[in-house]
Amino acid sequence: MRLAVLSDIHGNLPALEAVTRDLRRRGVDAVVNLGDSLSGPLLPRETAQFLMATDWLHLAGNHERQLLTLPEAAKGPSDAFATTQLSPVEFDWLATLPGTARLGDDVFLCHGTPTRDDVYLLETVSPGEVRLATPAEVAERLGAVQSSLVLCGHSHVPRAVRAPSGQRIVNPGSVGLQAYADDHPFPHVVATGSPDARYAMVTREGTAWVTDLVAVPYRHGDMASLAQRHQRPDWFEAIGRGYLETIG
User: Fold this and answer.
1) Rounded distance, CA 6 to CA 209, Å?
2) Taking the model in full, what pTM does it have?
3) Which of 25, 181, 190, 235 is the most interior residue, by most CB within 10 Å?
């Protein structure tokens, strides 16, 4: 089995198209998308239409949940922009997406953790710090999941980690947003240091999973400029450089 793993597209259609061209060149048996596909000041409707035309397995992330359930006054600027761009057709599609999924007994898919779409599985946030989660923290967040391969997103940080149980946990990073600031559970910034689109390839070889974390160049300047036109200087910096210097 050879899987392409995507997550956190955030409406960045050119980045998604670049990733799609690259994974097709490599050859895959299936493509999975771990959620947070549309939210942001870019191309949410066009990205939804691209994804709806695929035969990929799609999950809902925390932003899909927020788009569907939060009242308008409670939505942040990224969700609020996406809401104005999406039609009932796209919202109906979002409502069909599961929060978690399995591929047989061996592969478990989630956006954040198996039980929370807004918690990092492989990172821990404390005041002033985002660090790799400890083995004990990872084991606690996995809970009863026993699959040999666990695929997660949400943090935008590409990682391939071994749980204490020996399970392989892979976060492909973000297709469309290489830095961001968040205030949950404490204010923090995540940055990958490159504007390239990220995804992962995982291949089963015997009883083992081999992981390739892939960075794909694309015309990120166009999307950075679009974010700037939509009055999002934070996204302009994050997409254009892969860095975000300040929180807020």
Assistant:
1) 17
2) 0.97
3) 235
